[in-house]
Amino acid sequence: MIVAVMAAILVTMLLALARAFLGPGRYNRILAINMFGTKTVLFVAVSGYLFGRPEFLDIGILYALVNFVAVIAVLRLTHETESDAA
Amino acid sequence: MIANLPVLQVLIPLGCAPLCVLLRRRSLAWLVFLMAALGSLACAAVLARQVAAHGPLHYAVGGWAPPYGIEFVVAGYNTPVLLVVSGAAVAAAVYSLGSVRTEIDDRRAPLLYTFLCLTLGGLLGLTVTGDVFNAFVFLEISSLSTYAMVALGPRRRALPAAFRYLVIGTVGATFVLIGIGLAYAVTGTLNMADLAARLAAADSDRALYAAAVFVFVGLAVKAAVFPLHAWLPGAYGEAPSTVSTFLAATSTKVALYVLCRLTFTVFGAGLVFGTMPVGRIGLLAGGLAAVAASAVACFQTDLKYLLAWSSIAQIGYILAGISLGTAAGVSAAYLHLINHAVIKASLFAAAGLVLVRLGSVQLSALAGLGRRMPWTFAAIVIAGLGLVGVPPTAGFAGKWALASALIEAGQWPVLVAMLVSSLLALGYIGRIVETAWFREPASVAEPSGAPASMTAVVWVLVAVSVVFGLDAALPASLAESAAEALLNGGG
Amino acid sequence: MTTFTVINFTLLTILTVTALVIARLRALYEAAMLTALSSLVTASLFVLMDAVDVAFTEAAVGVGISTVLLLGVLALTRSREAVTPRHRHLPAIAVTALTGGLLVYAAQDLPAFGSADSPVQRHPVTEVYLHQSQKEIGVPNTVTAVLASYRALDTLGELVVVFAAGTAVLLLLGPLTHGKRRQNLDLMEYKVLRVVSSLLMPFVLVFALYVLFHGDFGPGGGFQAGVIFATGFVLHGLVFGLDKSQRVLPPAALGSLVPLGLGLFVGLGVVTMLLGGSFLDYGTLLPTGGPAAQHLGILTVEVAIGITVAAVMTSIFFAFAGRRPTR
Amino acid sequence: MILLEILSAVLLAAGTLFIVSGAVGLLRFPDFYTRIHATGITDSAGAGLILLGLLLRTTTWEAGVRLLIILLFLVVTGPTATHLLAHAARRDGVPVWRKGHPRR
Amino acid sequence: MSGTHYVYWLLFALMMIGLYVVISHGNLLKKMIGLTLFQVSVFLFFISLGKVEDGSAPIISPEVETYSHPLPQVLILTAIVVGVATLAVGLALAVRIFEAYGTVEEQDMQERDEDRHGAAS
Predict the structure, then answer these.
(1) What is the pLDDT of residues B148-192, one digit of tens each?
(2) Which residues span the membrane (chain C) (predicted)?
(3) Do A55 and D73 lie within an 8 Å CB cutoff?
(4) Among residues B415, C144, E69, E118, which is most buried (max CB within 10 A)?
(5) Mutate which: C95, C98, C102, vs B, most B CBs within 10 A
């Protein structure tokens, strides 16, 4: 069961990656990356169970945090150049 | 505390760096750096005496025996480097009293001293460490501080020069890291002595060769060995005078020393010079550097860039000496390393003096000033003659030793390259002399007065170079014991 | 093929393809975002290869700090790359081919990936770090034991590098240079974000403290804690604006915290020397020596790292964020 | 015990279904707004279900607490990020797809 | 050589992509991105040296027998920190260069310097 979940996560990652490459534009990419980020959180959680050491879930917490910060940073900093360039 | 000297001399400058930030005052930060430099020099001197009397010192950091912990090794092969680096730091400290005041504003000066402390500590640590990964860390400490210091240069071109240095330097350091990784993969250790023993026993030649190549290329970048010298002219030419004076005497020299150390005590001369064609490549690169860089120097219009290109040529000489792989060659390389450090430091210091007095180091601005600034230009000429290798200057002693080592090894083409390079050096020094004495002055503005501290440093360095030329006993004995320690595995 | 191999291969392929796309993208914002993505993949690979501490650091540094810095710089400069002139490709291809060829040559002698019989695993160091350390130091996380005790000097060097970087950024971009302050743009208009961020902040800070003190038993330690702490303030600064963050955490206070941590580390080393041991020999800290003294030393070191790293990373962010676009 | 395992398997399967369908939507839908609609819902829900499924397999309280924290975190930050993204895209004028237009 | 060498091949490819970007691109920020990729792949290479098949993270626990090697992880922790420090300094320099030159393209910088100084370096 866990193996199947892992496979699904990897497939999802690949699909999100395709959207991140195709774009078009910034927002589609942010969306894809945000989704990819959630999948890495799941990856960490699931791989802990898959390989028998689920104690390291702290990393998952951190991933969730930095993923959020990265999205905020993209929004805040792109927003700025656009208003400044105008 | 005496037992802790190997670590103290690295720790003093590193510990002084945060102090400089905290003090925030120019004069106090200067004092801290001076003390750090003097402290390191004192440690280096005591260490040199101890090593000469009792042989190599091993210091296990944290009390963990190598290869489990990190080890510092002070031996005949690195005491000359320690003396040169900490001596140059003292000279730079005194020199900076006058120089930094004219180039850097009050609020940034303490930060410059912070970086000088860090660079000093990094270079000393790189010299004494007996662990390859620790060497990488110290290399990065000194490099990162150097990038920041170069960026402080007065012209805007300092910024791209610093960036270029940063990118090239980081690629070089990463190459070193790849080399360390490959060596680690086939041995499982990072301690230099342990590495040497296991590399000799390992039967994975291909990884070993590649490891050596990566480490050598990476260090050659840091040492500005031709043709990997692209960062050096900009970095030395644009840095503040104190910084170029200090760096010219130390940073590439330490990289060359590490190259030597790894060649002879880790990879082994048999592998490097016997199995791999590193010796021939080194001689080729050294010979080419000597000729090509000297030729480029002849066409420079900026005194500091001219000196920087001349440094690349001189690095070629040192590299050629090392690449011979013989005791005479290595000893000559060390001798030239010491002498060139003194000469080039005095020249960059004099260039800084010119910059302070005229506001420019363009050759065109020097026209006809030989008579108005006789002492400054006299210093440049004496040191310049040392660069050419005219007896009885220090440069002559080094070049003579190198020439005899080359003859002994039958490397005639390299010898010819050296002679051509010396003639070219005569050309560019001659050009400075011609401009300063035989051209009509371009401006009527009177040069401003020279800070005593700067003049003093220039003349002390020039005097040292002359003394080393007249009586080469001290540097020669240091160089010989270094070669002895390296080639006979005295680690 | 084992499950591990499939996962490993997939992630490595994703990483390589991402790198290729980044190399070809001329829109730099997009390239920076994909760099963040590649960093996520790298961190996942670290987890997969059992390097949990490294994964922790890579996530915090690569996805958090690096991305924010890159995007911040892009906001200050142009975000589109010029076309690379054709003549630049040739030397690059030559160098890359040579280096790659050398690596492929070397790889033929490299031990099989995952082999328990490689020189790395057979070396006596392995036994000492994994098992003897339990008696000598008594810290279950052997990475912490090696980092903070066996190879503490590397860690000191690492902290010096962080310190140097912080000082360098201060020198180049700090209030000392004559750059003007930018207007206080922020994301204040989003109420949801404000509420969520205020909820998250205390949690992030507690999490940082937990990571700092839990480093002996699980992934974590001073460096990771410092970066998480800084990430918290980055979030705060992004949402509430720089001025508010600097009111909470004045730059002057940060400026004195930076040298404090490094001073603490160096001071610890000096104390061990004064007590008659060698530099950073924690065994001298307590008369009984042994694991208790080691614990004391490691804890001090972790706290020192945490202080300096948090202060440096936060002030680097402030320095970049406080810069006003010039055009 | 068996009941727990079955429940866990059901939750994991449901979560897997959610994340895969979300990813397919992300790739196949014609414009940004439809894509964010697809991912916004499935991402949090799928992740939540998978984490709950894992929680049922957990034997130690340390791992359980961490799973709950991650869950809480994702549930709070996920929708926030989606909300911000959609809002910012609207403001920046990311175009909306109409029937018959090419995908963007 | 064995079937597990795919790890090295992919990592080396990654390294070369990074190195290529550093050398060929003239945009300073792209160069820094390339440098990051180059370094990250070297870090992964180190970590791959410590991995043991069926091993686990080197955090000692009574239930686990095989551990991956902690030393490469320690080294890479240090190296990551050095990497981010270099990135921060490089980016700070890029910002200053943009303020001084109005560009972050190497090509344009050189042209603008030659316009002003008329001096070859």
Answers:
(1) 999 998 888 999 999 999 999 999 999 999 999 999 999 999 999
(2) 6-25, 32-49, 55-77, 89-107, 156-174, 195-213, 225-242, 254-276, 296-321
(3) no
(4) C144
(5) C102
Is B206 a member of any domain?
A: no
The domain containing residue B428 runs over which residues? Answer: 277-491
If one counts the domains in chain B, the total is 1
* Each residue's pLDDT tens digit, C229-259: 999 999 888 888 888 888 888 888 888 889 9
If you measure CA to CA, which chain C residue comes closest to A31? Answer: C33
- The DSSP output letter for D72 is H
Residue E61 Cα, gap to closest chain A Cα (Å): 10
C187 chain-D contacts, CB cut-off 8 A: 84
Question: What does residue C231 show for φ and ψ, rounded to 5 degrees?
Answer: -60, -40
If you measure CA to CA, which chain A residue comes closest to D40? A35
Q: How many domains does chain E have?
A: 1
Question: Is residue B269 within a helix (H) or strand (E), and if so which, with residue range?
Answer: helix B269-269
For chain C, the domains span 1-83, 84-119, 123-327
Cis peptide bond upstream of C325, omega within 30 = no
What's residue B489's pLDDT?
Answer: 61
**Contact by Cβ (8 Å): B335, B314:** no
**Contact list, C120 vs chain B (CB under 8 Å):** 184-185, 188
B185 CB neighbours in chain E (<8 A) are: 49
Which own/partner pairs from B477-481 qualify as long-range (CB within 8 Å, at least 24 positions apart)? B478/B48, B478/B79, B478/B80, B478/B83, B478/B334, B478/B338, B479/B80, B479/B331, B479/B332, B479/B333, B479/B334, B479/B335, B479/B338, B479/B401, B480/B331, B481/B52, B481/B76
Backbone angles phi, psi at B302, to 5 degrees: -120, 130
Percentage with pLDDT > 90 across chain B: 60
Q: Is C197 exposed, middle or buried (0-12, 13-18, 19+ CB in 10 A)?
A: buried
Give the residue from chain D lying closest to C194, CA to CA.
Answer: D80
Burial of C199 (0-12, 13-18, 19+ CB in 10 A): exposed
Which residue, among B100, B88, B425, B111, has the nearest Cα to B251 in the 3D structure? B88
Bridge partners for E56 per DSSP: E67
pLDDT for position B439: 81
The answer to whether position B121 is within a domain reads no
Q: Alpha-carbon distance D23 to B185, whole Å?
A: 40
Give the whole-angstrom CA distance, residue B34 versus residue B36: 5
H helices present in chain A, as ranges: 2-22, 25-50, 58-85
Where on the phi/psi map is residue B188: left (φ > 0), alpha (ψ -120 to 50), or beta? left
Q: What's the gap in Å between the CA of C223 and the closest CA on chain E?
A: 9
Q: For residue B66, give the DSSP letter.
A: T
Between C142 and C183, the higher pLDDT residue: C142
In terms of Cβ atoms closer than 10 Å to its own Cβ (0-12, 13-18, 19+), residue C319 is buried
Residue ranges of domains in chain A: 2-85
Partner B, chain C 242-281, Cβ-Cβ below 8 Å: 255-256, 258-260, 262-263, 266, 269-270, 273, 277-281
Residues C201/C204/C206/C210 CA torsion (nearest 10 deg) = -170
- Residue with more model confidence, D88 or A47: A47
Phi, psi at B414, each rounded to 5°: -65, -40
Instruction: Report residue D73 as tokens.
Output: 């975190």
Residue whose C-alpha is closest to residue B299's, from C302, E119, E43, D28: E119
Q: What is the ipTM for the molecules in this complex?
A: 0.93
CB C224 within 8 A of CB C57: yes
In the structure, what pLDDT confidence band is assigned to residue A82 with cuts at 50, 70 and 90?
very low
Is B371 inside a domain boundary?
A: yes
Name the H helices within E1-121. Answer: 6-24, 28-50, 70-101, 106-117
The answer as to whether B175 is a domain residue is no
Angle at D27 between CA D26 and CA D30, to 5 degrees: 85
